[in-house]
Amino acid sequence: MSTRDIEDQIREIYGVEVSESTVSTVTNRIVDHIKEWQVRPLEPVYFTCWMDGIQFKIRHNGKVVNKCIYLVIGLKNDGLKEILGMWINETESASFWLGVLTDLKARGVEEILIACTDNLTGFTKAIAEVFPMTITQLCIVHQIRNSCKYVSWKERKTFAADLKTVYGAVNKDAARHALDDFAEKWGSKYGYAINSWENNWDALTSYFDFPLEIRKLIYTTNVIESLNSGIRKFTKSKSLFPDDQAALKAVYL
After folding, report:
1. Staple 141 to which of 34, 62, 82, 220, CB 3.0 to 4.6 Å?
2. In the prediction, which pLDDT does 90 show?
3. CA 138 to CA 204: how far, in whole Å?
4. Which residues pair with 72 in a beta bridge?
């Protein structure tokens, strides 16, 4: 509920007038909990980490700007997932991700075995600096969507079926051959799609180095997208946040 919703609800049920600012003051008590949660110690090793962000409109210096709250989910050695933290920023960059990863390291993380992302700007460079042994896997689902985005709708079904021979191959060598065949067929029309696969090939095909059970876990960022979908459901009533703290409160709750 927004602060206005709470104000209306209290008036309707109890007949008591409570201003929006009073509601904000009461809910601000959660800020201390957020600060404690954000600096809590973490596990030394996470088998997989998924990273993604959610965009919100936030008032900043008298203007409405788009800011992103970035979340990191880690898979622990007991098989359970844990949200490691949340960070707010206007833009992605290597320096931003360096700050996030350094924060995780300072809180006790020694190793991240596999990091799954949606080709986040500057992330690959940052993780190589902080966790040099980490394997990066770009989200195949996002890559497919980006590849199909500008394909004529009449050809999209055939294009997608041919693309499946690449990411659905049995191993990396077979995937490479499939990409060559795909490029030969579609390169003249949709060269940008082939270039995107070529330029990110190593990070897109890391999952081929693992058994099928692990491939299913790491080839997509669906784990964190599912969380983001739930957060959007509970924040959709709030089209604009007055400041960063209000956005962080809503997402944390």
Report:
1. 220
2. 84
3. 5
4. 51, 85
Containing H/E element for 20? helix 20-27
Residue 251: which of 8, 71, 21, 63 has the closest Cα? 71
- Backbone dihedral region for residue 14 (phi beyond 0: left; psi -120 to 50: alpha; all else: beta): alpha
pLDDT tens digits, one per residue of 2-54: 778 889 999 999 999 998 889 888 888 899 999 999 999 999 999 999 998 89
Which ranges of 39-111 would DSSP assign to H, the alpha helix?
A: 94-106
What is the Cα–Cα distance from 118 to 140, expressed in whole angstroms? 8
Is the distance from CB of 101 to CB of 33 less than 8 angstroms? no
Cα 4 to Cα 13, 104, 142: the distances in Å are 14, 36, 37
Q: 70 near 83, Cβ under 8 Å?
A: no
Question: Which alpha helices (H) appear in 77-190, and where do they start and end?
Answer: 94-106, 123-130, 140-148, 153-167, 172-186
Sign (positive/negative) of CA torsion 46, 120, 247, 95?
positive
Checking DSSP bridges between strand 63-75 and strand 45-60, what pairing results, if any?
Answer: antiparallel
Reported as half-sphere exposure (CB side, CA atoms, 13 A), residue 50 has a value of 21
* Whole-number Å distance between alpha carbons of 157 and 236: 33
pLDDT in tens, 127-152: 999 999 999 999 999 999 999 988 88
